Amino acid sequence: MKRLIPLITLIATLNLSYAASAQDRINIRDKEGRIMAVIESDRSGGIVSIQNPAGEKILSLEIDPDGGLIILKNQAGNTVAIVAANNDAGGLLHLRGPEGNNRVTFEVIENGGLATILNKDGELVLVAGADPDGNGQVVLAGQEGRRGVTMAADNVGGLIVVRNKDDGKSILIEATESGGGAISVVDGTDIQVGVLETDRVGGALRLGTIDGDEMVRLEIDAARGLFTLNDISGREAIQIGSDEDGGSMAILNHNGDAALLLGVDSSGEGFIGLSGSRIHDLAETFELGTRKNVLPGTVMAADANGSGTLLPSAEPYDRKAIGVISGAGEFRHAMLIGTRNDGSSDLPVAVIGQVYVRVSTENGPIAPGDLLVSSSRAGVAMRASDMNRAFGAFIGKALQAYNETAVEGLVRMLVMSR
């Protein structure tokens, strides 16, 4: 009886009513006797309910063997918030719209936390949570719940994926294992058509076709920059680069070798290279009277019969000598003028610059600076010793010495026709 005295006193003070049963219940009333709150319990747990003057529950706090539960309702009686807990996973929070449908959910799952947001039509528009490895992920969805943007993090760094309306990847922004970042543009079949990336040394831009063939590449590192254009098969065709010496441009053949090279060497001088060789002369295509024994480096002369064609020179100090066939030794012509009547342009004659010429020691050893003229050997030059005969007949000035016992050799010469 003594244990009931405090409870009876409490009921009298707060205008409470108490009913003892297997399910205990306490009603809290206002001055008009309306029930405003109910506290009740049974063998599984307890419930606290708060009601409005119309007797509608607007808040409920429940405790059962799985955990606690809080429910909030609006004036229309629709549930707008739920807070729950259970012994297996953790807590859960639902925030709902005026109609009582779920809009926002926060919950604790086995891997960590999870948050979801739905639009007014109940379609998923955002999910944020942790994957099985403990990394974070955020997914933004569009209409009908299609994934639009995915953001994730792992032990390498961050990742952002932008998807098209067919749920295919369109843009990827990610951190790379090299310590840099990358932006990739992807077509509907997950083939990269554009990549912009950086690492600890520099950066690179790559553009390709829908077939995955790389067509354009721009690279920058600690030592140089390089811009590359590929052909349709993916082979490198053009390279434009820079290094400590300066800039260069190379046009490559199908083997990847530089067929044409423009650049600056270590001395700061510009050069032109062709098929791996330096090129030094301007050549012009002439009609040839014969191709027999006409080789690069051959001294050519006008046909004495006036046909307008060129033939290998055949006499010493020949004033009909025109020039030397370009392409001997390591040199190639830098520019070629004209074609023949048959459309060919091979075996052109060097008219300006440096060229290798076939020479002999018929008139003595050749020293640098010697004027060169035709010799008695067809198509072969010699040093000029008779300046009167050499006037109007010399074809150039020797840049190298020649004193060999062989019948003929090659000497580097500056073209000087007088």
Helices and strands in order, then pairings?
Elements lengths: L3 H10 L2 E4 L4 E6 L5 E7 L4 E6 L5 E8 L2 E7 L5 E7 L5 E6 L5 E8 L2 E7 L5 E7 L5 E6 L5 E7 L4 E6 L5 E7 L5 E6 L5 E7 L4 E6 L5 E7 L4 E6 L5 E7 L4 E6 L5 E7 L5 E5 L2 E8 L14 E4 L7 E3 L8 E5 L6 E6 L11 E11 L11 E4 L6 E3 L3 H4 L5 E3 L10 E7 L3
Parallel strand pairs: 25-29
Antiparallel strand pairs: 1-2, 2-3, 3-4, 4-5, 5-6, 6-7, 7-8, 8-9, 9-10, 10-11, 11-12, 12-13, 13-14, 14-15, 15-16, 16-17, 17-18, 18-19, 19-20, 20-21, 21-22, 22-23, 23-24, 24-25, 25-30, 26-27, 26-28, 28-30, 30-34, 31-32, 31-33, 33-34
Number of separate helices: 2
Q: Could you give a short account of the major beta sheet? A: 34 strands, mixed
- Poorly predicted regions: 1-14, 16-22
Principal-axis shape: rod-shaped
Quote the CATH topology of the domain at 279-415: Virus Head Decoration Protein, Chain: A
Mean pLDDT: 78
What is the end-to-end distance?
142 Å
Helix content: under 10%
Strand coverage percent: over 45%
Query: How many strands in all?
Result: 34
In CATH, the homologous superfamily of the domain at 279-415 goes by the name Head decoration protein D
Give the C-alpha Rg.
46 Å
Task: Please tell me the CATH architecture of the domain at 279-415 by its name.
Answer: Beta Barrel
Q: Supply the CATH class of the domain at 279-415.
A: Mainly Beta
- Given helix and strand content, the structural type is mainly beta
Write structural notes for this entry.
The structure is a single chain. The chain has 418 residues and is mainly beta. Among the domains are: 1-78; 223-275; 279-415, Head decoration protein D (Virus Head Decoration Protein, Chain: A, Beta Barrel), CATH 2.40.300.10. The protein is 3% helix and 50% strand. The protein contains two helices and 34 strands. It has a 34-stranded mixed beta sheet that branches. A hairpin with a 4-residue loop joins strand 17 and strand 18 (203-208). The longest helix is centred in the first third of the chain and has 10 residues, at 4-13. The chain is rod-shaped, with a radius of gyration of 46 Å. The termini are far apart. The model is unreliable at 1-14 and 16-22 (pLDDT under 50).
